[in-house]
Amino acid sequence: MTTKQLKFQSEIIVDKAINPKVRIESIDALRGFTMFWIIGGDRIMRALPDISNNVVFNFLAEQLRHVDWIGFHFYDLIFPMFLFLIGAVLPYSIGRRIEKGASKSDLYKHIFQRAAMMFILGLIYYGIKDPDLKSLGYYGVLQLLAVGYFFSSIILINTNIKGLVFWTGGILLFYFILLKFIPVPGYGAGVLTQEGNFSNYIGSLSSDILSPKFRKLLTPYMISPISTALLGVLAGYWMRRDDGQLTKIKGLIIGGTLLVIFSLIWANWVPIIKNLWTGSYVLLTAGISCILLALFYWIIDVKGYSKWAFFFIVIGLNPITIYILARIIDFKAIVIFLTYSIVPLLGKAESLFLAVCVTACHWLVVYWLYKKKIFIKI
User: Fold this and answer.
1) Where are the domains of the chain?
2) Please, which pLDDT band fits residue 225 given cuts at 50, 70 and 90?
3) Nearest CA among 39, 81, 30, 37 for reference residue 61
4) pLDDT confidence band for 246 (50 / 70 / 90)
């Protein structure tokens, strides 16, 4: 092969032409930072109390667990931040295609193929270890990313920045109205318990037809994550402006801070609930994502301190790859096999040791891909 880019019919691209020097490394680093917690960082933090049952370790472990219903932990930020970053790169990726002369039909085809591949990979992700397909369904990271990517991309190429703002606000307002003012039989309107909320009620209407994993596919819940991706698109447009770097940083910080403030105000009417992806949850996670993006951008791209972020950049260049491989390959079994004579001697440190080693295995896989200049993009 003499081409620098090998493209398969599945639309998975093995790209050897990525030049880190012309990329915004902060976005790669932040993307890798989010994926790190998914592929092992969470287990490392949750293993800390096994070593010492102190206040700090217990707090860190608790932050790496999802809130049961109302409230917010750090771990509740990871998924929406990844979706936010998908939106943030769209003005660059789709913008480049438009600048190269791509027609709308070409863009539609590309968007549909990419979203379909993410959705299908999400189904495969659950089906790999479930031959009976009992857990197969829409409700997974890749499926929801596919939905957010597809609709935010379609909206992006058919409107301007003002239109993006209206779409984002419109989606959040429409979802707010559904949750607060549409009555649910037996509960009434505005009930936001796990059993009585409007979104779950709509899903229950299909209980005789679809499995629980598929029900949310037909619920209003599906529309709210689109607004997370659209807020990422707006952040991406801001970063792509010709203004100075400090102006971009200030804009992201101010915008992110305002989103967090509006979120806390909105939470008085609709609480922060991840499992419902409420508007207050959207604004909070997008606001924090904006602030973190500004911080990463300032440290890495403006100040040039990028060596510390190399660990995350390597993950961020192949995030979906390691996410899928972590499901396919039982890295924990490999670690136990290689260290079986050591593990029994570790005592309370056993779970932490295994978590660190498994995470290291994940990283070494993407590092090998990085060294080979193989970057698998969907």
Assistant:
1) 5-377
2) very high
3) 37
4) very high
